[in-house]
Design goal:
807 residues; alpha/beta; 15-stranded mixed β-sheet; 17 strands; AAA+ ATPase domain-containing protein; P-loop_NTPase
Length: 807
């Protein structure tokens, strides 16, 4: 029988093609040969081109093939040498080796795997890359839960044949992944989020092994209404495992959030507490993109006309900065002030600037405050930063804009260590607004580049309808119990395992989701490695899904009592260390305008004259900053009259309300036995040396009785002297009480300049005013007033000292 003509496929590549009948000599350079693993990776001296052509020559060459001559010319020899050099760049790997390496890489980067697959790999029954070891495949892992059943698989369900230990499901912490969590309130969504954060941040625990922990960032927002209804971020309980937790909150709600987070319900008494810090951005952190985000420049579909002027100013400043990216905010405001905006345009522009300045720190800060600001987004391994913008003055649009800037700052230092970013209760702020869309775009970009950025993303929300694009990109979807058919339709369109269910299987899947117990979830992860067989080896989950029971937390569990309890109402506020005070940009502007810095004079009279804020000299010496906002807050009004207290209250007076009496209080140090007492002005006190304020002119010389007093006191109005020894002061005006509170703060700061206690200030102020020590806590009105006044005065005194030292 004559040989049949060659197949077209065998001669497609010309004379280099060979058939199965052609002899192949090992080591001759045939790329398609299947040699041993060791031989296939070696490059022996290759023969010349004409010899190779002869070896690969087919008995029936292609008609168009031109064979070289058997004797090469000198030019052909040089070309052969060049070809041999180029051949060194071609990897000599067989097809079997290529498939094995790809399989190992797929297993190494899988988001989820079982103990069964792990044992298969460690016993050598699975694929292994050339030159690799079993320990290199699963280096960092932590337990997520236990598989209960597998659904929708073309293969038999192995969960029933494997032991419980072999069905344990682990999260691969060595490879980037993204997780989408959804479910109704109370179904275990936040619990699963906390378990994933534990797996990422704890170095070693009962849950697994994580020698290189990540740095975490969690976004949380809740419409703040009261202590009882505000939902805190459950991830804060990781501090019970000695994880350094830093909570950044809105400056307008910092004291309330400090109280809530420092007294988390259910947290062990000996456990460390989260560190609560007001969220402030430094001016050097502002660039064109962040400034536009903070001013909501991209938050509207049709931007107003004045925003075009703002864009032009930012473009000019960006050009002048020569690519540095940073902006001078004061220069920006000055350029805005020179624009001819109408009154209708200035109002919304002023509101946007007010939002910006409320989260902008002043340039002049103490060393401790500056260091604290610099550390806000410099997260180290095993640390967690929570940005909780729950505040009655921050809406969801503002929260998304601030989250976008925080995310940008957090990702600037991603080279230090791996990152994990979580959105807790995302349905509360990921709305359809422009700010939310910008945040979604930034998260989508990170998910697309998660392997290059080394970042993990977790999105926990009740409604899967908010961000379908994120649902499409996340490679792990964990579905807890919910009852909404609309949510199920979204999942069915975006999840492969749910999309393949039709008709009666659709209804069965929805019933399965409704019937999930708390802590149970369905996991959709096509790249998960959960089973292995002798025929196929380790295989992917593909379009199947599993039901899993999420593990218990290894840190304190705050899910059952996340709402603040009524017992917290009696907790006293924390002390305010001076180094924790950060001067905001807006408050600094108002305070500096209201108070002039005194010149260093020697006498009290000179100091009094220099502190008159209404004088031209004081106005010239005032450090002002351009602002579009009204100066409405003053430390002490410039036209304020001197107030006095009533020493003798009549019977039946309501002592629980602050009052402004007409008479003055009595003091034993100013009693005159020879007649009615005379009215004297308030002398300069140590508090006025720090916080100057206008006082009435001195009308008469101070009597010796007052001059020799141990401390300056308010002068007394005319009143019968006999009542002073039998009756005690029971009411005082708020303006006069402010003077005593300020003097108490000054005196206490001299003794302990770093810490100030509310109780000590109240008692000191009450004693100096001749009131009972518990007067400022006797009623709720005075308690709240004194608390607010102490905070205001401490910040003002601190700012004034800083400005005076700079001057």
């Amino acid at each position: 029988m004559e040989p049949s003509p060659p197949d077209d496929s065998s001669v497609e590549t010309g004379c280099l093609a060979s058939t199965t009948t052609s002899p192949i000599t090992p080591g001759t350079g045939n790329i398609g040969s299947c040699s041993s693993r060791s031989d296939s990776r070696q490059f022996p001296n290759a023969p010349s081109a004409h010899v190779r052509l002869a070896q690969h020559h087919h008995a029936h060459p292609h008609p168009g093939c031109i064979l070289p001559s058997s004797v090469p010319t000198p030019g052909q020899a040089n070309k052969d040498q060049e070809a041999r050099n180029h051949l060194q760049l071609i990897p000599r790997v067989s097809a079997a080796d290529t498939q094995s390496d790809a399989k190992v890489e797929e297993i190494r980067t899988t988001p989820l795997f079982t103990h069964h697959v792990r044992m298969v790999m460690e016993t050598g029954r699975g694929p292994l890359a050339a030159g690799g070891s079993v320990s290199d495949i699963f280096q960092q892992y932590a337990l997520l839960g236990v598989r209960e059943r597998t659904y929708g698989s073309r293969h038999p369900d192995m969960s029933n044949t494997l032991s419980v230990e072999q069905n344990l499901v682990y999260a691969n912490m060595n490879a980037p992944w993204s997780v989408f969590l959804c479910g109704s309130q109370g179904a275990g969504k936040s619990h699963s989020l906390s378990c994933l954060l534990e797996n990422s941040l704890l170095t070693s625990s009962l849950a697994g092994n994580n020698p290189n922990p990540l740095a975490g960032l969690v976004f949380h927002y809740d419409r703040f209404t009261s202590y009882e209804s505000t939902q805190l971020c459950e991830a804060a309980y990781l501090c019970s495992a000695s994880v350094q937790v830093r909570v950044l909150v809105s400056p307008s709600n910092v004291h309330t959030m400090r109280k809530l987070y420092r007294h988390l319900p259910g947290l062990p008494a000996a456990a460390p507490r989260p560190e609560v810090i007001p969220l402030y951005f430094q001016e050097h952190q502002l660039n064109v993109s962040r400034l536009m985000t903070l001013m909501a420049a991209n938050g509207e579909k049709a931007a107003p006309l004045y925003m075009e002027v703002l864009f032009k100013i930012l473009r000019d400043m960006s050009t002048e900065s020569r690519g540095e990216g940073r902006l001078d905010y004061l220069d920006f405001k000055q350029r805005l002030a020179r624009q001819a905006f109408s009154a209708q345009q200035r109002t919304p522009l002023g509101m946007r600037l007010a939002l910006l300045e409320s989260f902008l720190a002043h340039k002049q800060q103490s060393e401790q405050s500056t260091a604290r600001l610099n550390r806000l987004f410099n997260s180290a391994q095993g640390t967690l930063t929570i940005v909780d913008l729950s505040c009655p003055f921050v809406n969801e649009n503002d929260a998304c804009a601030l989250f976008t800037i925080c995310l940008s700052l957090f990702m600037e230092h991603r080279g230090d260590c791996g990152r994990i970013i979580a959105l807790d209760e995302a349905h509360k702020f990921l709305t359809q607004s422009g700010e939310a869309e910008k945040l979604t775009e930034q998260l989508t970009s990170i998910v697309r580049q998660q392997r290059h950025l080394g970042t993990r993303i977790i999105i926990a929300t009740q409604e899967p309808t908010l961000a379908p694009s994120l649902l499409d990109l996340c490679n792990v979807s964990i579905v807890h119990r919910f009852n909404s058919p609309a949510w199920f339709e979204v999942l069915r369109r975006h999840l492969a395992g749910a999309h393949l269910c039709h008709d009666h299987r659709d209804a069965a899947l929805f019933e399965m989701i409704i019937g999930l117990k708390t802590g149970q979830a369905l996991v959709f992860c096509p790249s998960a490695m959960l089973d292995a067989s002798a025929e196929e080896g380790v295989r992917r989950l593909n379009d199947a899904f599993i039901r899993i029971q999420i593990r218990n937390r290894v840190t304190a569990d705050g899910g059952r009592s996340i709402l603040a309890s009524d017992d917290m109402q009696g907790i006293e506020r924390e002390d305010i260390p001076m180094e924790e005070l950060i001067v905001p940009f807006s408050a600094a502007t108002r305070s500096v305008k209201a108070v002039a810095r005194p010149k260093r004079l020697t006498s009290d009279r000179q100091n009094h004259d220099s502190t008159d804020a209404s004088s031209p000299a004081a106005k010239n010496d005032t450090d002002t900053q351009p602002s579009l906002r009204d100066n409405r807050v003053r430390l002490m009004s410039e036209d304020q009259d001197e107030e006095f207290v009533d020493a003798l209250s009549s019977t039946g007076t309501d002592d629980t309300q602050p009052s402004v009496p007409d008479n003055a209080a009595r003091s034993p140090s100013t009693i005159n036995d020879h007649g009615p007492e005379r009215r004297y002005p308030l002398r300069t006190s140590p508090a006025r040396a720090i916080m100057p304020s206008p006082v009435p002119a001195v009308a008469e010389p101070v009597p010796q009785a007052v001059a020799s007093a141990s401390r300056p006191r308010l002068a007394l109005a005319s009143a019968p002297a006999k009542s002073v020894t039998t009756r005690s002061r029971t009411k005082i005006s708020q303006d006069v009480a402010s003077v005593h509170v300020r003097e108490a703060i000054t005196a206490l700061l001299k003794d302990r300049p770093n810490t100030l206690k509310f109780t000590a200030v109240r008692e000191q102020a009450a004693r100096s005013a001749g009131l009972p020590e518990g007067f400022f806590t006797s009623t709720e009105i005075w308690t709240k007033w004194s608390r607010r006044k102490i905070r205001e005065l401490v910040v003002s005194i601190f700012l004034y000292i800083r400005l005076a030292s700079v001057d």
